[in-house]
Amino acid sequence: SSAASDVYKRQIYKENTAQYGTLQNGVTESGTVEFGITSQVYDLDLTTDDDDDDDDDEEDEDYLKVEEVYVAVGQRITQGDPVYKFTQSSIDKVRKTLTYARTEAQIALNEAQTQYDVGVLTAGLSYDETMLASSLAEQSYNNTIAKLSNDLAAKTLEIEQLLADIYDIQLSLVDDDYREQRDDLKEAYEDAIEDVEDASEDFVTNRVSAAETFRAARDSYEKFLEQFDESNDEIQDKVDEIYGLQKEILYTQQLMQKDILEASQSYESDTLDGNIAQNTYDSDLTGYESSLQKAKEDLEDAQQLLDDFEEFVGDGTVYAQGSGLVTEVGFDVDDYLENAGVLVAYASSDAMTVSVDVSEEDVVAMKVGDSVTLVFTVYEDETYEGIIQSITTTATSRGTATVSYPVVISIQGDTSGLYEGMTADVTFITCLLYTSDAAD
């Protein structure tokens, strides 16, 4: 294509002469060395609850204290080199504090376990009692209604019996036999009166007989009248008793309404308690489980902190976890490691890069992973290898005549002689040409 032809011509123009064989056409750009910094950090939080009550001087004793610093900025270190040494007294102090904190957490867990066991038992008993009360609520309600109804029915039945008795008495007073007996006794009584009046005074025997007949007829008649009065009195007594029972029935009905209302409220309350008993039990159980779980987590945290401390402090010396050029040393001799921070930072040899800007005409022929060559100003006779690590797709010079794109090169091989900021010329190999004659 014409675009490819233009690129080809421009590339031929940049390489003026070539010997017979393979010709490498490329683009050279300048950039500076940048370090990929690796930080070895200290991230143990050794603060305990007891520290809040201590003075500042006493607090310092609860942290590791630096006794020796073996590295300095600009020094090259190798993995495994010693970096810091801590005082044995500070190690012992921190270990004692963390061990005590773990013991306290274990005691707290034991207490939480006891509270959990007792709480679960108590919640279970309360749940059982509530459910029992709920199950008996309906029976109690029905029993209350049944008792009041039975009392009311008994009094009603008693009134009915009294009314029946009154009816029987009244019926006995008006039946034919009764009326005939009454009429006969009355007639005999009246006849006896007449016989006494008609008896001659001359005949004593007749007078005596008439008088006796009179007395007998009178007594029989009066006795009949007394029985009649007694029957009426009995009827009145029974009527009075009925009135009394009716008052009792009225009172029982009022009491029944009151007791039924109270029984209904109690039933509804017990039923509601039964409905929420499971939720209450679950809520109580969740609370106890939450407290127990927190105590377990606190113990695990205390144990983990102690384990992390032992792993970190080791034999009392911190060693480099990688190799490179030291760029930062976080602590000095006699410093306390009170806060998390960088112990040592270093530029890893395998993380050194050079960044350059490449024009849009050249960048289209490049891709991540392509090889490049680098020549540093301070080492003009040495050539380093590099690999394209990234190509940024966003232009760095929009709005100007020249548009370029940042390209990051990863420096390969031995970089021990390189320092940040060194200038390097980077040559990108864009194509290979084959020729048999010398070129222009």
Helix percentage range: 55-70%
- Beta fraction of the residues? 15-25%
Helical region count?
6
The overall strand count is 13
SSE order in H/E notation? HEEHEEEHHHEEEEHEEEE
Strand order of the largest sheet: 1-9-12-11-10-13
Summary keywords:
440 residues; alpha+beta; four-stranded antiparallel beta sheet; 21% strand; rod-shaped; disordered N terminus; disordered C terminus
Task: Characterize the structure shown.
With 440 residues, the chain is an alpha+beta fold. Helix 3 packs antiparallel against helix 5. The protein has six helices and 13 strands. The N terminus and C terminus are likely disordered. The two termini are 23 Å apart. It is 55% helix and 21% strand.
SSE blueprint:
Elements: H1 2-14, E1 21-34, E2 37-42, H2 56-60, E3 66-69, E4 76-77, E5 82-86, H3 88-174, H4 176-198, H5 204-313, E6 317-319, E7 324-329, E8 341-347, E9 353-359, H6 360-363, E10 371-376, E11 379-391, E12 404-411, E13 423-435
Antiparallel strand pairs: 1-9, 1-13, 2-8, 3-5, 4-7, 5-6, 7-8, 9-12, 10-11, 10-13, 11-12
Helix pairs in contact: 3-5, 4-5
